[in-house]
Every structure is written in structure tokens, then in C-alpha cells.
Write a structure and sequence with these properties.
By secondary structure, this protein is mainly alpha-helical. It is 79% helix and 0% strand. The chain contains 16 helices and no strands.
Length: 333
């Protein structure tokens, strides 16, 4: 019993050290990337030549009026001083004030981000479950009609744009059958059922690309893993097919599929503007599009900062998952 306890403690410590190393390496990369990205993001105003004076006063504003408005916004200060003021505000959660309506950018982004995150998380969940099931079945039934059918289905859904899928889903399930609302959003605080009914169709529309990528990556990984010598050795030792799959094959094969998710989640949140238009949702993507068209630089800068944070945060989470579940990363390979 004492030996088993010591072994368990040693494994826990090893796992904690491995997780700490992964976090340290990720932070060492994330910090300089974040600093550079925020600097480039802030430089957009200077590069764009836009000014709040032209939005508030029009293009025919006098130079004196333009100078007065820019002074009120602190744009008459040196560039590096402006950047430092803005960056320290970002560190405290202050993304500035909208040039268009004078509202707090953090509040505006928060309203739209809640909608987009709800849809993106559900789409990611659907994509992971469906992709893992399809990829696993295709690999276990490789070279059969099942494998060919799944491969064909995955190929078809991978080239279907989300807005086309969205239109079809609305036509069939909202307008035709009346099972789901065709537009709008209900917060989770108002009930799980109405919240889910409003986000399910857009989530399904966005999930197709995730399903296709996860299924393809997992199928290829599983087929390659089954060809490794350790599988033959496990069969010789008399291990069951179920244990070989879950303990050895799946853990070695799922790395590329998990890594794919690190790229998919931020794109689901940021690239959903067309889907949000179809389903009548005022989400993060639609807010970003509206802000860019209006020339609202602080809002666009805020969108970029939040997008950067989502990318680095989700990739950190993916790295932690990979460090935990894949044997190669545990050996430091």
C-alpha cells in the first residue's frame, strides 16, 4: 500500500511539474507576442488617418475644430505617450471609449461577446463530439464502405459555407417545421431551454468545419497509430482491443486533432458575422464589422485586443491538454 501511495504521489508531482513547464513556456511566448500585437493594434489609428473629429464634425470641419476635438481625446500627445496610456488602460480592462456614441468599448464588446461565445462554445462541442465519433468509426472501419461514406460526407461538409448551411437550417427547421426560432437571442439567465433553442441552429451551421477537420485529423492519426510497433507488442502481451485503443492508440493519435481546435475556436468567434446576420444576432463578429465600417478605431482596437486574448488563452488551454493526454509531450518529444 505504501509503495502504491508513493507511486501515486510521484505521478501527481510529475504531472504538476509538466503542467508548470508547459505554462511557463507558453507564457514566455505569449507575453512578447501580446506586447507586439497590442503595439501594432494601437498603431492602426495613425496608419488609418482616421480621427474622431471627422466622425463627430464631418469632413468639412475646420482645422481648428479638428484640433480641439483631437485634444479632447488626447490625440495631440506624442505617439508613445498615447500608446502607454491606452496600454495601461487595457491592462486594467479599459478598452477606451467609442468615437461614434461615446460608450465604453469594454461594455459594448461584452454584450456581443456573450452571444458569440455561447454559439462558438456550443459549435465547438458539437464539432468535437461529432468529429471524434466520425473519425474513430472511419479509422476502425478503414477501407470499408463505412469509411468511404464518412470520408465523402466530411469532404462535402468541409466545403459548405456556414451561411449556406444557416439558410438551409432556417428554411427547414425554423420556417418549415417551426421547431426553432428563426432569429434573436435569449440570455442563459432567462432559462436554458430558450437560450439553447436560439443558439442551436447557428452553432450547428458553424460546427461543420470543425467536424470535418477533427474527423480527418483523428482518422489519419488513428490509422497511423495502429501501424506502430507498440500496438503489435500490446496484442502479443494479450491486451484487449478496447484497452489498446483507449490507453495507447487514441492518446497517441489525438494530438493533431486537439491542436486543430486551437485554431478553430477563435475563428468561430471572429468569423461568425455572416451567420449572425442570418440569425438576427448582435454578436462579436457583427459588432466588429459595424465598428470597422463606421471608422470607430477604439472599438476596432478593442475587438483586436479581445481576439488576441482569446487566441493566446485558448492555445494555452490546448497546450495544457496536449501535455496531459499525449505520451509524446510527456516524454518531452
Amino acid at each position: 500500500m505504501a509503495v502504491a501511495t508513493l507511486v501515486t504521489v510521484a505521478r501527481v508531482r510529475h504531472g504538476a511539474v509538466r503542467t508548470l513547464v508547459t505554462v511557463t513556456k507558453s507564457v514566455a511566448i505569449v507575453v512578447p507576442v501580446f506586447l507586439l500585437a497590442t503595439f501594432v493594434t494601437f498603431a492602426l489609428r495613425s496608419l488609418s488617418g482616421l480621427s474622431p473629429a471627422h466622425i463627430q464634425l464631418g469632413e468639412d470641419a475646420t482645422p481648428e475644430a479638428v484640433a480641439r476635438v483631437e485634444s479632447q481625446w488626447g490625440l495631440d500627445q506624442p505617439f508613445l505617450e498615447q500608446y502607454w496610456t491606452w496600454f495601461t488602460g487595457v491592462l486594467h480592462g479599459d478598452l477606451g471609449t467609442s468615437w461614434v456614441n461615446g460608450a465604453d468599448v469594454s461594455t459594448l464588446i461584452g454584450l456581443g461577446l456573450g452571444v458569440s461565445l455561447s454559439i462558438a462554445l456550443l459549435a465547438m462541442g458539437i464539432g468535437i463530439v461529432a468529429g471524434f465519433v466520425l473519425g474513430t468509426v472511419a479509422a476502425l472501419r478503414r477501407t470499408t464502405w463505412v469509411d468511404r461514406a464518412i470520408t465523402g460526407f466530411v469532404t462535402i461538409v468541409s466545403v459548405m459555407p456556414a451561411f449556406v448551411v444557416g439558410i438551409v437550417l432556417v428554411t427547414i427547421f425554423a420556417v418549415g417545421l417551426g421547431w426553432f426560432p428563426s432569429a434573436g437571442y435569449v440570455p442563459l439567465a432567462d432559462g436554458v431551454s430558450p437560450w439553447l433553442s436560439h443558439i442551436l441552429l447557428p452553432a450547428v451551421a458553424l460546427s461543420f468545419d470543425v467536424v470535418a477537420d477533427v474527423a480527418r485529423q483523428l482518422r489519419s492519426g488513428l490509422i497511423a497509430a495502429y501501424r506502430e510497433n507498440y500496438v503489435s507488442g500490446a496484442l502479443v502481451r494479450g491486451l484487449g482491443a478496447r484497452r489498446i485503443f483507449f490507453v495507447h492508440v487514441l492518446r497517441n493519435a489525438m494530438g493533431p486533432a486537439v491542436a486543430t481546435l486551437g485554431l478553430k475556436f477563435p475563428s468561430l468567434v471572429g468569423a461568425s458575422v455572416v451567420t449572425e446576420w442570418i440569425f438576427g444576432l448582435q454578436g462579436f463578429g457583427r459588432f466588429a464589422n459595424d465598428s470597422a465600417q463606421a471608422g470607430d478605431v477604439p472599438a476596432v482596437q478593442g475587438v483586436l485586443v479581445v481576439s488576441i486574448l482569446m487566441v493566446v488563452s485558448f492555445n494555452l488551454l490546448v497546450n495544457l491538454v496536449l501535455a496531459r493526454v499525449t505520451p509524446a509531450s510527456q516524454r518531452g518529444v
